[in-house]
Design brief:
heterodimer, A: mainly alpha, two-stranded antiparallel ribbon, globular, disordered C terminus, B: mainly alpha, disordered N terminus
Chain lengths: 346, 298
Amino acid sequence: MADEATARLGVTASPATSTPTVPVAGRASARPAAGRPGGRRGNGASIRKGLEITLFVAPALALLTLFVAVPIARAVQISFFKWKGYGDFEKFVGLDNYRRVLENTEFIEAFQHNMIIVVASIAIQLPLGLAIALLLNRKMRFQGTIRTLIFVPYVISEVIAGVIWYQMFVPNEGLIDTVLDKVGLSGPQQGFLGTLETALPALVVVLTWKYLGLAVILFLAGLQGVPEELYEAAQLDGASWWQIQRRITVPMLGPTLRTWAFLSMIGSLQLFDMVWVLTRGGPANATSTMATFLVQQGMQRSNFGIAAAASVILFVVALVMALTYQRFIMNRDNTVTVVRRKKVRR
Amino acid sequence: MSTALAAPKGAAAAAAQKSGHRGRSTNAMRGGSPMIYFVALVVIALSIGPVLYGVISGFRKNGDLILNPSGMPNPWILDNYVGVFKNPQFWTYTGNSVAIAGITTLLVVICGVMAAFPLARYQFPGREAIFTVFVAGLLFPATVGVIPLFILIRDLGLSNTWWGIALPQAAYALPLTVVILRPFLAAIPHELEEAAQLDGASRLGFFWRVLLPLSGPGLVTVGVLAFVGSWNAYMLPLLLLQADNKTLPLGVADYSAEHSTDIAGVFAFTSVAMIPALIFFLAMQKRIVSGLQGAVKG
Protein backbone atom coordinates (compact mmCIF):
# COMPACT_ATOMS: atom_id res chain seq x y z
CA MET A 1 0.00 0.00 0.00
CA ALA A 2 2.77 2.38 0.96
CA ASP A 3 4.68 1.42 -2.17
CA GLU A 4 1.69 2.10 -4.31
CA ALA A 5 1.28 5.45 -2.65
CA THR A 6 4.85 6.54 -3.23
CA ALA A 7 4.65 5.20 -6.75
CA ARG A 8 1.66 7.42 -7.42
CA LEU A 9 3.41 10.38 -5.93
CA GLY A 10 6.06 10.08 -8.62
CA VAL A 11 3.76 10.49 -11.59
CA THR A 12 3.08 14.12 -12.24
CA ALA A 13 4.27 13.33 -15.72
CA SER A 14 1.46 10.89 -16.49
CA PRO A 15 -0.11 12.21 -19.70
CA ALA A 16 -3.64 11.69 -18.46
CA THR A 17 -3.27 14.38 -15.78
CA SER A 18 -3.18 17.13 -18.32
CA THR A 19 -6.47 16.37 -20.03
CA PRO A 20 -9.16 16.68 -17.40
CA THR A 21 -11.33 19.48 -18.65
CA VAL A 22 -13.73 16.76 -17.61
CA PRO A 23 -11.93 15.92 -14.39
CA VAL A 24 -13.63 12.57 -13.82
CA ALA A 25 -12.57 11.12 -17.13
CA GLY A 26 -9.02 12.33 -16.67
CA ARG A 27 -8.79 10.78 -13.25
CA ALA A 28 -10.15 7.44 -14.33
CA SER A 29 -7.66 7.07 -17.14
CA ALA A 30 -4.79 8.31 -15.00
CA ARG A 31 -5.03 5.53 -12.44
CA PRO A 32 -4.00 2.47 -14.45
CA ALA A 33 -0.94 4.26 -15.82
CA ALA A 34 0.09 5.44 -12.39
CA GLY A 35 2.15 2.50 -11.24
CA ARG A 36 4.81 2.10 -13.90
CA PRO A 37 6.63 5.34 -14.63
CA GLY A 38 6.46 6.48 -11.03
CA GLY A 39 8.40 3.57 -9.64
CA ARG A 40 11.51 4.66 -11.46
CA ARG A 41 11.82 7.89 -9.52
CA GLY A 42 13.89 7.94 -6.38
CA ASN A 43 12.43 7.99 -2.91
CA GLY A 44 13.89 11.45 -2.31
CA ALA A 45 11.84 12.88 -5.15
CA SER A 46 8.69 11.41 -3.64
CA ILE A 47 9.35 12.91 -0.26
CA ARG A 48 10.11 16.23 -1.85
CA LYS A 49 6.90 16.01 -3.79
CA GLY A 50 4.87 15.11 -0.72
CA LEU A 51 6.36 18.15 0.97
CA GLU A 52 5.46 20.36 -1.96
CA ILE A 53 1.89 19.14 -1.95
CA THR A 54 1.59 19.69 1.79
CA LEU A 55 3.04 23.19 1.64
CA PHE A 56 0.81 24.17 -1.25
CA VAL A 57 -2.45 22.89 0.17
CA ALA A 58 -1.76 23.79 3.81
CA PRO A 59 -2.55 27.54 3.84
CA ALA A 60 -5.95 27.04 2.23
CA LEU A 61 -6.82 24.11 4.45
CA ALA A 62 -5.67 26.02 7.53
CA LEU A 63 -7.90 28.99 6.69
CA LEU A 64 -10.82 26.69 5.95
CA THR A 65 -10.34 24.78 9.19
CA LEU A 66 -9.82 27.76 11.44
CA PHE A 67 -12.55 30.06 10.11
CA VAL A 68 -15.15 27.69 8.65
CA ALA A 69 -14.91 24.26 10.27
CA VAL A 70 -14.01 25.32 13.81
CA PRO A 71 -16.77 27.95 14.12
CA ILE A 72 -19.36 25.50 12.86
CA ALA A 73 -18.17 22.82 15.25
CA ARG A 74 -18.24 25.43 18.01
CA ALA A 75 -21.78 26.38 17.01
CA VAL A 76 -22.82 22.77 17.59
CA GLN A 77 -20.98 22.73 20.92
CA ILE A 78 -22.38 26.06 22.14
CA SER A 79 -25.88 24.94 21.19
CA PHE A 80 -25.80 22.41 24.06
CA PHE A 81 -24.93 24.98 26.71
CA LYS A 82 -26.48 27.93 28.38
CA TRP A 83 -23.78 30.49 27.71
CA LYS A 84 -23.56 34.26 27.85
CA GLY A 85 -20.53 34.67 25.60
CA TYR A 86 -17.64 34.63 28.07
CA GLY A 87 -16.01 32.24 30.55
CA ASP A 88 -16.12 28.45 30.57
CA PHE A 89 -19.02 26.38 29.47
CA GLU A 90 -20.67 25.40 32.70
CA LYS A 91 -24.31 24.79 32.25
CA PHE A 92 -24.88 21.84 29.93
CA VAL A 93 -28.52 21.89 28.92
CA GLY A 94 -28.59 19.09 26.33
CA LEU A 95 -31.21 19.68 23.69
CA ASP A 96 -32.99 22.31 25.71
CA ASN A 97 -31.81 25.17 23.47
CA TYR A 98 -33.19 23.33 20.44
CA ARG A 99 -36.51 22.79 22.21
CA ARG A 100 -36.64 26.48 23.10
CA VAL A 101 -35.89 27.54 19.53
CA LEU A 102 -38.41 25.16 17.99
CA GLU A 103 -41.10 26.26 20.46
CA ASN A 104 -40.29 29.94 19.94
CA THR A 105 -43.03 31.58 17.91
CA GLU A 106 -40.56 34.22 16.74
CA PHE A 107 -38.36 31.51 15.23
CA ILE A 108 -41.33 29.69 13.67
CA GLU A 109 -42.42 32.96 12.07
CA ALA A 110 -38.91 33.66 10.85
CA PHE A 111 -38.74 30.16 9.37
CA GLN A 112 -42.08 30.69 7.63
CA HIS A 113 -40.85 34.00 6.20
CA ASN A 114 -37.78 32.23 4.82
CA MET A 115 -40.00 29.64 3.17
CA ILE A 116 -42.29 32.30 1.70
CA ILE A 117 -39.24 34.11 0.32
CA VAL A 118 -37.82 30.88 -1.16
CA VAL A 119 -41.10 30.10 -2.93
CA ALA A 120 -41.80 33.69 -3.98
CA SER A 121 -38.29 34.21 -5.34
CA ILE A 122 -38.51 31.17 -7.57
CA ALA A 123 -42.17 31.58 -8.53
CA ILE A 124 -41.67 35.23 -9.55
CA GLN A 125 -38.12 35.36 -10.87
CA LEU A 126 -38.13 32.14 -12.87
CA PRO A 127 -40.95 32.96 -15.31
CA LEU A 128 -40.08 36.66 -15.40
CA GLY A 129 -36.36 36.07 -15.89
CA LEU A 130 -37.01 33.40 -18.50
CA ALA A 131 -39.39 35.63 -20.43
CA ILE A 132 -36.93 38.52 -20.43
CA ALA A 133 -34.02 36.27 -21.39
CA LEU A 134 -35.98 34.74 -24.28
CA LEU A 135 -36.97 38.19 -25.55
CA LEU A 136 -33.44 39.53 -25.35
CA ASN A 137 -31.83 36.44 -26.85
CA ARG A 138 -31.95 37.66 -30.41
CA LYS A 139 -29.98 39.84 -32.66
CA MET A 140 -30.76 43.40 -31.67
CA ARG A 141 -29.00 46.69 -31.33
CA PHE A 142 -27.48 47.77 -28.01
CA GLN A 143 -27.65 44.17 -26.83
CA GLY A 144 -24.52 44.47 -24.70
CA THR A 145 -25.66 47.73 -23.12
CA ILE A 146 -29.09 46.32 -22.35
CA ARG A 147 -27.61 43.28 -20.64
CA THR A 148 -25.19 45.37 -18.64
CA LEU A 149 -27.92 47.70 -17.40
CA ILE A 150 -30.12 44.80 -16.32
CA PHE A 151 -27.22 43.50 -14.26
CA VAL A 152 -26.79 46.77 -12.31
CA PRO A 153 -29.05 45.95 -9.32
CA TYR A 154 -27.17 42.73 -8.70
CA VAL A 155 -23.85 44.55 -8.71
CA ILE A 156 -24.78 47.04 -5.99
CA SER A 157 -24.41 45.82 -2.43
CA GLU A 158 -27.58 44.87 -0.58
CA VAL A 159 -26.96 47.62 1.94
CA ILE A 160 -26.74 50.39 -0.66
CA ALA A 161 -29.75 49.05 -2.56
CA GLY A 162 -31.57 48.70 0.76
CA VAL A 163 -30.88 52.30 1.79
CA ILE A 164 -32.20 53.63 -1.54
CA TRP A 165 -35.37 51.53 -1.31
CA TYR A 166 -35.82 52.45 2.34
CA GLN A 167 -35.89 56.12 1.33
CA MET A 168 -38.31 55.40 -1.50
CA PHE A 169 -40.62 53.59 0.94
CA VAL A 170 -40.74 56.46 3.49
CA PRO A 171 -44.45 57.03 4.26
CA ASN A 172 -46.07 60.04 2.55
CA GLU A 173 -42.89 61.85 1.55
CA GLY A 174 -41.10 58.95 -0.15
CA LEU A 175 -41.17 58.46 -3.90
CA ILE A 176 -43.53 55.49 -3.87
CA ASP A 177 -46.26 57.12 -1.78
CA THR A 178 -45.97 60.36 -3.76
CA VAL A 179 -46.37 58.60 -7.08
CA LEU A 180 -49.31 56.57 -5.73
CA ASP A 181 -50.85 59.82 -4.52
CA LYS A 182 -50.59 61.34 -7.99
CA VAL A 183 -52.53 58.51 -9.57
CA GLY A 184 -55.18 58.80 -6.86
CA LEU A 185 -54.15 55.85 -4.70
CA SER A 186 -52.72 55.90 -1.22
CA GLY A 187 -50.23 53.66 0.52
CA PRO A 188 -50.80 52.28 4.02
CA GLN A 189 -50.62 54.80 6.91
CA GLN A 190 -47.36 53.47 8.33
CA GLY A 191 -45.80 53.02 4.91
CA PHE A 192 -45.38 49.71 3.12
CA LEU A 193 -42.45 48.64 5.28
CA GLY A 194 -44.19 49.65 8.51
CA THR A 195 -47.46 47.82 7.98
CA LEU A 196 -47.83 44.18 9.05
CA GLU A 197 -49.52 42.91 5.90
CA THR A 198 -47.43 44.81 3.37
CA ALA A 199 -43.92 44.59 4.84
CA LEU A 200 -43.10 41.09 3.61
CA PRO A 201 -44.53 41.64 0.10
CA ALA A 202 -42.56 44.91 -0.10
CA LEU A 203 -39.41 43.02 0.87
CA VAL A 204 -40.13 40.45 -1.86
CA VAL A 205 -40.52 43.27 -4.40
CA VAL A 206 -37.11 44.67 -3.48
CA LEU A 207 -35.51 41.21 -3.60
CA THR A 208 -37.06 40.57 -7.00
CA TRP A 209 -35.62 43.85 -8.25
CA LYS A 210 -32.21 43.01 -6.79
CA TYR A 211 -31.87 39.46 -8.10
CA LEU A 212 -33.88 39.33 -11.34
CA GLY A 213 -30.86 40.62 -13.26
CA LEU A 214 -28.75 37.67 -12.11
CA ALA A 215 -31.41 35.24 -13.33
CA VAL A 216 -31.64 36.99 -16.71
CA ILE A 217 -27.86 37.05 -17.17
CA LEU A 218 -27.43 33.41 -16.21
CA PHE A 219 -30.32 32.32 -18.44
CA LEU A 220 -28.91 34.34 -21.34
CA ALA A 221 -25.53 32.69 -20.81
CA GLY A 222 -27.26 29.30 -20.80
CA LEU A 223 -29.04 30.18 -24.04
CA GLN A 224 -25.68 30.69 -25.72
CA GLY A 225 -25.13 26.98 -25.25
CA VAL A 226 -28.12 25.95 -27.34
CA PRO A 227 -26.78 24.87 -30.75
CA GLU A 228 -27.83 27.13 -33.61
CA GLU A 229 -28.56 24.09 -35.83
CA LEU A 230 -31.45 23.06 -33.61
CA TYR A 231 -33.17 26.38 -34.32
CA GLU A 232 -32.43 26.22 -38.02
CA ALA A 233 -33.77 22.68 -38.29
CA ALA A 234 -36.90 23.61 -36.36
CA GLN A 235 -37.49 26.65 -38.52
CA LEU A 236 -37.10 24.56 -41.66
CA ASP A 237 -39.72 22.22 -40.24
CA GLY A 238 -42.03 25.21 -39.94
CA ALA A 239 -42.07 25.44 -36.15
CA SER A 240 -43.37 28.70 -34.71
CA TRP A 241 -41.32 30.92 -32.37
CA TRP A 242 -43.46 29.76 -29.47
CA GLN A 243 -43.03 26.08 -30.37
CA ILE A 244 -39.29 26.53 -30.67
CA GLN A 245 -39.09 28.10 -27.20
CA ARG A 246 -41.30 25.42 -25.64
CA ARG A 247 -39.70 22.42 -27.27
CA ILE A 248 -36.06 23.38 -27.74
CA THR A 249 -35.00 26.38 -25.70
CA VAL A 250 -36.63 25.65 -22.36
CA PRO A 251 -35.68 21.96 -22.24
CA MET A 252 -32.12 22.79 -23.30
CA LEU A 253 -32.03 25.44 -20.59
CA GLY A 254 -33.25 22.95 -17.97
CA PRO A 255 -29.94 22.46 -16.14
CA THR A 256 -29.31 26.23 -15.96
CA LEU A 257 -32.81 26.85 -14.58
CA ARG A 258 -32.47 24.13 -11.99
CA THR A 259 -29.04 25.29 -10.85
CA TRP A 260 -30.21 28.89 -10.65
CA ALA A 261 -33.24 27.82 -8.58
CA PHE A 262 -30.89 25.94 -6.28
CA LEU A 263 -28.66 28.97 -5.72
CA SER A 264 -31.71 31.17 -5.22
CA MET A 265 -33.11 28.75 -2.63
CA ILE A 266 -29.89 28.59 -0.61
CA GLY A 267 -29.54 32.39 -0.80
CA SER A 268 -33.13 32.94 0.38
CA LEU A 269 -32.59 30.72 3.42
CA GLN A 270 -29.66 32.87 4.57
CA LEU A 271 -31.22 36.24 3.86
CA PHE A 272 -30.00 38.89 6.28
CA ASP A 273 -28.50 42.08 4.82
CA MET A 274 -31.51 43.45 2.97
CA VAL A 275 -33.88 42.71 5.84
CA TRP A 276 -31.58 44.30 8.38
CA VAL A 277 -31.31 47.51 6.37
CA LEU A 278 -34.98 47.77 5.42
CA THR A 279 -36.84 46.64 8.55
CA ARG A 280 -34.58 44.91 11.11
CA GLY A 281 -37.13 42.11 10.87
CA GLY A 282 -40.04 44.34 11.88
CA PRO A 283 -42.71 45.54 12.21
CA ALA A 284 -43.51 43.07 15.00
CA ASN A 285 -41.31 40.41 13.33
CA ALA A 286 -43.34 40.56 10.11
CA THR A 287 -40.18 40.33 8.01
CA SER A 288 -37.87 38.40 10.33
CA THR A 289 -35.73 35.58 8.93
CA MET A 290 -33.79 32.81 10.62
CA ALA A 291 -30.62 34.88 10.18
CA THR A 292 -32.09 38.03 11.77
CA PHE A 293 -33.44 35.85 14.60
CA LEU A 294 -30.03 34.40 15.39
CA VAL A 295 -28.27 37.75 15.19
CA GLN A 296 -30.84 39.29 17.52
CA GLN A 297 -30.59 36.41 19.99
CA GLY A 298 -26.81 36.23 19.89
CA MET A 299 -25.57 39.78 19.51
CA GLN A 300 -28.33 41.80 21.09
CA ARG A 301 -29.56 39.53 23.87
CA SER A 302 -26.37 37.48 24.41
CA ASN A 303 -28.36 34.24 24.29
CA PHE A 304 -25.50 32.48 22.55
CA GLY A 305 -26.83 28.96 23.21
CA ILE A 306 -30.16 29.82 21.61
CA ALA A 307 -28.48 31.58 18.69
CA ALA A 308 -26.16 28.62 18.12
CA ALA A 309 -29.06 26.16 18.20
CA ALA A 310 -30.94 28.35 15.70
CA SER A 311 -27.91 28.44 13.41
CA VAL A 312 -27.55 24.66 13.54
CA ILE A 313 -31.24 24.33 12.69
CA LEU A 314 -30.75 26.79 9.81
CA PHE A 315 -27.89 24.64 8.56
CA VAL A 316 -29.88 21.41 8.82
CA VAL A 317 -32.85 22.97 7.02
CA ALA A 318 -30.55 24.20 4.23
CA LEU A 319 -28.82 20.84 3.99
CA VAL A 320 -32.05 18.83 3.91
CA MET A 321 -33.53 21.14 1.27
CA ALA A 322 -30.32 21.00 -0.76
CA LEU A 323 -30.12 17.21 -0.66
CA THR A 324 -33.82 16.79 -1.40
CA TYR A 325 -33.51 19.17 -4.31
CA GLN A 326 -30.44 17.37 -5.65
CA ARG A 327 -32.17 14.02 -5.28
CA PHE A 328 -35.53 14.83 -6.82
CA ILE A 329 -35.01 17.80 -9.12
CA MET A 330 -31.41 18.03 -10.21
CA ASN A 331 -31.28 14.41 -11.34
CA ARG A 332 -34.20 14.96 -13.68
CA ASP A 333 -31.63 16.43 -16.02
CA ASN A 334 -30.98 12.98 -17.44
CA THR A 335 -34.66 12.42 -18.11
CA VAL A 336 -34.96 15.72 -19.91
CA THR A 337 -31.98 14.88 -22.07
CA VAL A 338 -33.73 11.70 -23.13
CA VAL A 339 -36.92 13.58 -23.97
CA ARG A 340 -34.97 16.13 -25.94
CA ARG A 341 -33.10 13.53 -27.96
CA LYS A 342 -36.30 11.76 -28.90
CA LYS A 343 -37.79 14.99 -30.15
CA VAL A 344 -34.79 15.96 -32.18
CA ARG A 345 -34.74 12.60 -33.88
CA ARG A 346 -38.36 12.91 -34.81
CA MET B 1 -41.28 9.83 -16.42
CA SER B 2 -40.22 10.92 -19.85
CA THR B 3 -43.68 10.64 -21.35
CA ALA B 4 -45.17 12.50 -18.41
CA LEU B 5 -42.78 15.34 -19.10
CA ALA B 6 -43.28 15.27 -22.83
CA ALA B 7 -47.08 15.17 -22.88
CA PRO B 8 -47.94 18.58 -21.40
CA LYS B 9 -45.35 20.23 -23.61
CA GLY B 10 -46.90 18.77 -26.72
CA ALA B 11 -50.34 19.89 -25.60
CA ALA B 12 -49.17 23.39 -24.84
CA ALA B 13 -47.40 23.69 -28.15
CA ALA B 14 -50.54 22.57 -29.97
CA ALA B 15 -52.59 25.09 -28.04
CA ALA B 16 -50.11 27.80 -28.88
CA GLN B 17 -50.42 26.93 -32.55
CA LYS B 18 -54.21 27.14 -32.43
CA SER B 19 -54.17 30.58 -30.85
CA GLY B 20 -52.50 31.90 -33.98
CA HIS B 21 -49.08 32.74 -32.54
CA ARG B 22 -47.41 31.36 -35.59
CA GLY B 23 -47.16 34.16 -38.13
CA ARG B 24 -46.39 36.97 -35.75
CA SER B 25 -43.81 35.17 -33.71
CA THR B 26 -41.76 33.83 -36.60
CA ASN B 27 -41.47 37.43 -37.69
CA ALA B 28 -40.22 38.44 -34.28
CA MET B 29 -37.54 35.77 -34.46
CA ARG B 30 -35.66 37.94 -36.90
CA GLY B 31 -35.34 40.63 -34.25
CA GLY B 32 -35.73 44.35 -34.57
CA SER B 33 -39.42 44.36 -33.66
CA PRO B 34 -40.28 47.65 -31.87
CA MET B 35 -42.22 45.62 -29.32
CA ILE B 36 -39.02 43.91 -28.18
CA TYR B 37 -37.22 47.22 -27.78
CA PHE B 38 -40.16 48.55 -25.81
CA VAL B 39 -40.06 45.59 -23.42
CA ALA B 40 -36.28 45.97 -23.09
CA LEU B 41 -36.73 49.65 -22.26
CA VAL B 42 -39.30 48.91 -19.57
CA VAL B 43 -37.06 46.27 -18.01
CA ILE B 44 -34.07 48.62 -18.04
CA ALA B 45 -36.11 51.46 -16.56
CA LEU B 46 -37.26 49.22 -13.71
CA SER B 47 -33.73 47.92 -13.15
CA ILE B 48 -31.84 51.17 -13.00
CA GLY B 49 -34.75 53.43 -12.02
CA PRO B 50 -34.14 53.27 -8.25
CA VAL B 51 -30.40 53.73 -8.78
CA LEU B 52 -30.89 56.76 -11.02
CA TYR B 53 -33.45 58.13 -8.59
CA GLY B 54 -30.85 57.96 -5.84
CA VAL B 55 -28.18 59.63 -7.94
CA ILE B 56 -30.47 62.42 -9.21
CA SER B 57 -31.97 63.07 -5.78
CA GLY B 58 -28.46 63.72 -4.53
CA PHE B 59 -28.50 66.87 -6.68
CA ARG B 60 -31.50 68.34 -4.90
CA LYS B 61 -32.24 70.41 -1.84
CA ASN B 62 -34.11 68.65 0.93
CA GLY B 63 -37.08 71.01 0.78
CA ASP B 64 -37.38 70.50 -2.95
CA LEU B 65 -37.09 66.71 -2.49
CA ILE B 66 -39.79 66.54 0.18
CA LEU B 67 -42.22 68.77 -1.70
CA ASN B 68 -41.93 66.90 -4.96
CA PRO B 69 -39.97 63.64 -4.75
CA SER B 70 -40.98 62.49 -8.22
CA GLY B 71 -39.86 65.60 -10.10
CA MET B 72 -36.45 66.57 -11.40
CA PRO B 73 -34.01 68.70 -9.38
CA ASN B 74 -34.76 72.38 -9.64
CA PRO B 75 -32.14 73.77 -9.55
CA TRP B 76 -29.43 71.09 -9.80
CA ILE B 77 -27.06 71.63 -6.87
CA LEU B 78 -23.71 70.05 -6.16
CA ASP B 79 -23.56 70.80 -2.43
CA ASN B 80 -24.56 67.33 -1.28
CA TYR B 81 -21.95 65.61 -3.38
CA VAL B 82 -19.26 68.12 -2.44
CA GLY B 83 -20.22 67.46 1.18
CA VAL B 84 -19.63 63.73 0.75
CA PHE B 85 -16.17 64.25 -0.73
CA LYS B 86 -15.30 66.67 2.07
CA ASN B 87 -16.54 64.22 4.70
CA PRO B 88 -13.43 62.63 6.29
CA GLN B 89 -15.50 59.66 7.48
CA PHE B 90 -16.37 58.79 3.92
CA TRP B 91 -12.67 58.46 3.10
CA THR B 92 -12.03 56.45 6.25
CA TYR B 93 -14.78 54.00 5.34
CA THR B 94 -13.56 53.80 1.74
CA GLY B 95 -9.99 53.19 2.87
CA ASN B 96 -11.13 50.37 5.16
CA SER B 97 -13.20 48.80 2.39
CA VAL B 98 -10.30 48.96 -0.06
CA ALA B 99 -7.88 47.49 2.48
CA ILE B 100 -10.18 44.66 3.61
CA ALA B 101 -11.30 43.73 0.10
CA GLY B 102 -7.67 43.93 -1.08
CA ILE B 103 -6.34 41.66 1.68
CA THR B 104 -9.22 39.23 1.17
CA THR B 105 -8.62 39.08 -2.57
CA LEU B 106 -4.88 38.54 -2.20
CA LEU B 107 -5.37 35.79 0.37
CA VAL B 108 -8.00 34.06 -1.74
CA VAL B 109 -6.02 34.19 -4.97
CA ILE B 110 -2.71 33.11 -3.44
CA CYS B 111 -4.05 30.35 -1.20
CA GLY B 112 -6.56 29.29 -3.85
CA VAL B 113 -4.14 28.85 -6.72
CA MET B 114 -1.63 27.13 -4.44
CA ALA B 115 -4.22 24.61 -3.31
CA ALA B 116 -5.66 24.12 -6.78
CA PHE B 117 -2.24 23.38 -8.32
CA PRO B 118 -1.55 19.99 -6.69
CA LEU B 119 -5.25 19.12 -6.77
CA ALA B 120 -5.25 19.66 -10.52
CA ARG B 121 -1.85 18.38 -11.64
CA TYR B 122 -0.43 15.96 -9.08
CA GLN B 123 -1.37 12.36 -8.56
CA PHE B 124 -1.38 11.49 -4.89
CA PRO B 125 -3.48 9.49 -2.48
CA GLY B 126 -6.09 11.59 -0.74
CA ARG B 127 -6.29 14.08 -3.57
CA GLU B 128 -10.00 13.57 -4.12
CA ALA B 129 -10.61 13.53 -0.37
CA ILE B 130 -8.99 16.97 -0.02
CA PHE B 131 -10.93 18.27 -2.99
CA THR B 132 -14.12 16.98 -1.38
CA VAL B 133 -13.30 19.02 1.72
CA PHE B 134 -13.30 22.15 -0.43
CA VAL B 135 -16.51 21.17 -2.21
CA ALA B 136 -18.14 20.52 1.17
CA GLY B 137 -17.06 24.03 2.18
CA LEU B 138 -19.53 25.34 -0.40
CA LEU B 139 -22.35 23.86 1.64
CA PHE B 140 -21.67 25.83 4.81
CA PRO B 141 -23.46 29.16 4.83
CA ALA B 142 -21.50 31.92 6.57
CA THR B 143 -24.58 32.65 8.67
CA VAL B 144 -24.30 29.32 10.51
CA GLY B 145 -20.89 30.01 11.96
CA VAL B 146 -21.21 33.73 12.44
CA ILE B 147 -21.74 33.77 16.21
CA PRO B 148 -18.84 31.42 17.08
CA LEU B 149 -16.77 33.25 14.46
CA PHE B 150 -17.44 36.48 16.31
CA ILE B 151 -16.20 34.86 19.52
CA LEU B 152 -13.18 33.28 17.79
CA ILE B 153 -12.08 36.57 16.24
CA ARG B 154 -12.54 38.26 19.60
CA ASP B 155 -10.45 35.59 21.35
CA LEU B 156 -7.72 35.88 18.70
CA GLY B 157 -7.57 39.60 19.45
CA LEU B 158 -8.57 40.47 15.91
CA SER B 159 -11.89 42.21 16.66
CA ASN B 160 -12.17 45.55 15.01
CA THR B 161 -9.20 44.96 12.70
CA TRP B 162 -8.89 44.55 8.93
CA TRP B 163 -7.45 41.05 9.32
CA GLY B 164 -10.31 39.97 11.55
CA ILE B 165 -12.66 40.49 8.59
CA ALA B 166 -10.35 39.56 5.72
CA LEU B 167 -9.25 36.16 7.08
CA PRO B 168 -12.73 34.68 7.55
CA GLN B 169 -13.97 36.23 4.31
CA ALA B 170 -11.05 34.63 2.48
CA ALA B 171 -11.80 31.31 4.14
CA TYR B 172 -15.41 31.42 2.99
CA ALA B 173 -14.39 32.41 -0.55
CA LEU B 174 -11.80 29.62 -0.88
CA PRO B 175 -14.08 26.67 -1.68
CA LEU B 176 -15.56 28.40 -4.75
CA THR B 177 -12.08 29.55 -5.80
CA VAL B 178 -10.62 26.05 -5.68
CA VAL B 179 -13.65 24.58 -7.43
CA ILE B 180 -13.29 27.12 -10.28
CA LEU B 181 -9.50 26.98 -10.53
CA ARG B 182 -8.94 23.23 -10.48
CA PRO B 183 -10.44 22.42 -13.90
CA PHE B 184 -8.87 25.62 -15.18
CA LEU B 185 -5.35 24.57 -14.16
CA ALA B 186 -5.95 20.98 -15.25
CA ALA B 187 -6.84 22.16 -18.76
CA ILE B 188 -3.43 23.73 -19.38
CA PRO B 189 -1.81 21.44 -21.97
CA HIS B 190 0.50 18.77 -20.71
CA GLU B 191 2.99 19.39 -23.52
CA LEU B 192 3.90 22.68 -21.87
CA GLU B 193 4.80 20.86 -18.70
CA GLU B 194 6.96 18.37 -20.58
CA ALA B 195 8.69 21.17 -22.47
CA ALA B 196 9.38 22.98 -19.22
CA GLN B 197 10.80 19.80 -17.72
CA LEU B 198 13.05 19.25 -20.74
CA ASP B 199 14.29 22.79 -20.28
CA GLY B 200 15.24 21.83 -16.77
CA ALA B 201 12.40 23.45 -14.85
CA SER B 202 11.30 21.79 -11.64
CA ARG B 203 7.62 21.38 -10.81
CA LEU B 204 7.82 24.57 -8.81
CA GLY B 205 9.59 26.30 -11.67
CA PHE B 206 6.80 25.16 -13.97
CA PHE B 207 4.24 26.50 -11.48
CA TRP B 208 5.92 29.92 -11.30
CA ARG B 209 7.02 30.46 -14.87
CA VAL B 210 4.40 28.68 -16.92
CA LEU B 211 1.27 27.92 -14.96
CA LEU B 212 0.79 31.21 -13.11
CA PRO B 213 1.18 33.44 -16.19
CA LEU B 214 -1.14 31.19 -18.19
CA SER B 215 -3.82 31.11 -15.51
CA GLY B 216 -4.18 34.90 -15.47
CA PRO B 217 -7.80 34.95 -16.69
CA GLY B 218 -8.84 32.32 -14.15
CA LEU B 219 -7.12 34.20 -11.34
CA VAL B 220 -8.81 37.44 -12.37
CA THR B 221 -12.20 35.72 -12.29
CA VAL B 222 -11.79 34.31 -8.80
CA GLY B 223 -10.17 37.56 -7.66
CA VAL B 224 -13.12 39.60 -8.91
CA LEU B 225 -15.59 37.27 -7.20
CA ALA B 226 -13.69 37.50 -3.93
CA PHE B 227 -13.42 41.28 -4.21
CA VAL B 228 -17.15 41.60 -4.98
CA GLY B 229 -18.04 39.43 -2.01
CA SER B 230 -15.79 41.29 0.38
CA TRP B 231 -16.66 44.77 -0.86
CA ASN B 232 -20.39 44.15 -0.49
CA ALA B 233 -20.22 42.17 2.75
CA TYR B 234 -22.33 43.42 5.61
CA MET B 235 -23.09 40.81 8.27
CA LEU B 236 -19.58 40.01 9.50
CA PRO B 237 -18.32 43.63 9.44
CA LEU B 238 -21.52 44.63 11.24
CA LEU B 239 -20.75 42.24 14.08
CA LEU B 240 -17.01 42.87 14.26
CA LEU B 241 -16.16 46.43 13.27
CA GLN B 242 -16.67 49.61 15.23
CA ALA B 243 -16.12 53.32 14.79
CA ASP B 244 -13.20 54.19 12.54
CA ASN B 245 -12.74 50.68 11.20
CA LYS B 246 -16.14 50.43 9.56
CA THR B 247 -16.44 49.60 5.89
CA LEU B 248 -18.42 51.52 3.29
CA PRO B 249 -21.65 49.46 3.53
CA LEU B 250 -21.66 49.99 7.31
CA GLY B 251 -20.92 53.66 6.74
CA VAL B 252 -23.84 54.00 4.34
CA ALA B 253 -26.22 52.31 6.76
CA ASP B 254 -24.99 54.51 9.63
CA TYR B 255 -25.16 57.69 7.63
CA SER B 256 -28.68 56.84 6.51
CA ALA B 257 -29.79 56.25 10.10
CA GLU B 258 -28.01 59.27 11.61
CA HIS B 259 -28.98 61.79 8.96
CA SER B 260 -32.51 60.56 8.35
CA THR B 261 -33.79 64.12 7.94
CA ASP B 262 -31.14 65.01 5.36
CA ILE B 263 -32.55 62.72 2.68
CA ALA B 264 -30.75 64.39 -0.22
CA GLY B 265 -27.48 64.04 1.69
CA VAL B 266 -28.16 60.35 2.28
CA PHE B 267 -28.83 59.86 -1.43
CA ALA B 268 -25.60 61.65 -2.32
CA PHE B 269 -23.59 59.58 0.17
CA THR B 270 -25.17 56.35 -1.08
CA SER B 271 -24.63 57.27 -4.73
CA VAL B 272 -20.96 58.07 -4.28
CA ALA B 273 -20.51 54.89 -2.26
CA MET B 274 -21.73 52.75 -5.14
CA ILE B 275 -19.63 54.40 -7.88
CA PRO B 276 -16.34 52.51 -7.41
CA ALA B 277 -18.10 49.17 -7.12
CA LEU B 278 -20.31 49.94 -10.11
CA ILE B 279 -17.40 50.91 -12.37
CA PHE B 280 -15.25 48.01 -11.27
CA PHE B 281 -17.98 45.40 -11.54
CA LEU B 282 -19.42 46.56 -14.84
CA ALA B 283 -15.94 46.45 -16.37
CA MET B 284 -15.59 42.92 -15.04
CA GLN B 285 -19.14 41.80 -15.81
CA LYS B 286 -18.12 39.06 -18.24
CA ARG B 287 -15.70 37.63 -15.70
CA ILE B 288 -18.26 37.67 -12.93
CA VAL B 289 -20.75 35.83 -15.13
CA SER B 290 -18.20 33.31 -16.33
CA GLY B 291 -17.15 32.78 -12.72
CA LEU B 292 -20.72 32.18 -11.67
CA GLN B 293 -21.17 29.79 -14.57
CA GLY B 294 -17.98 28.03 -13.57
CA ALA B 295 -19.46 27.61 -10.14
CA VAL B 296 -22.69 26.35 -11.65
CA LYS B 297 -20.96 23.78 -13.81
CA GLY B 298 -18.10 22.95 -11.44
